[in-house]
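Could you help me review a protein record that somebody else here produced? My question to you is simply how this chain folds and whether the tokens agree. Thanks in advance; the entry in question is below:
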Amino acid sequence: MAQAAAHQGADWFEARDLAAFRGERLVLEGVSFRLVAGGALLLRGPNGAGKSTLLRVLAGLIPLAAGALLWRGEDALADLSHHARRLAYLGHQDAVKPGFSVAENLAFAAGGGDTGAALAAVNLGPLADLPARFLSAGQRRRLALARLPLTRAPLWLLDEPGNGLDDAAIKALGALSDRHRAAGGMVIAATHHDLPFPGAAQLSLT
């Protein structure tokens, strides 16, 4: 069982012997981990091993075939709308609206947060007024990453967050994660990249 060091009295998230199907094929079985405030978990494995499926299970988007998912020891999926508010999910699609500016795209996730600071954190500040249709693939990915801290969700679920990013953007992703974890947040990322998440536990799926 993967586990990260605990912050006493803070949030913790646990999977116990999870199993899940994709279509009619069992792709996850016996998956267990425990992640606590300030922790990070990297999901490793070849394509088709179930990394994306596991993230969708953790987000409550795919039903469990077996096992339990717990938040502070309680059933995390008992209230799916409440669970959705606990997490920020970044999938393969960046969900960028091409007709809106960079800043307008970010405003949808702001929740009163500082969009200027969020754009600066991913080096997109000078492009705030640019229509998003002119962004490169890497810039769209950085814009998607900028949404994460604005959601104020304690749990980040990231599916291949390093896709399309250059070295500077990977470093910025690491800085975003560091700040989130320092504030008691948690990060789970499916990745083929070496991400700068110090002390992250690893869970291998085969």
Notes: The chain has one domain: 2-95+154-204.
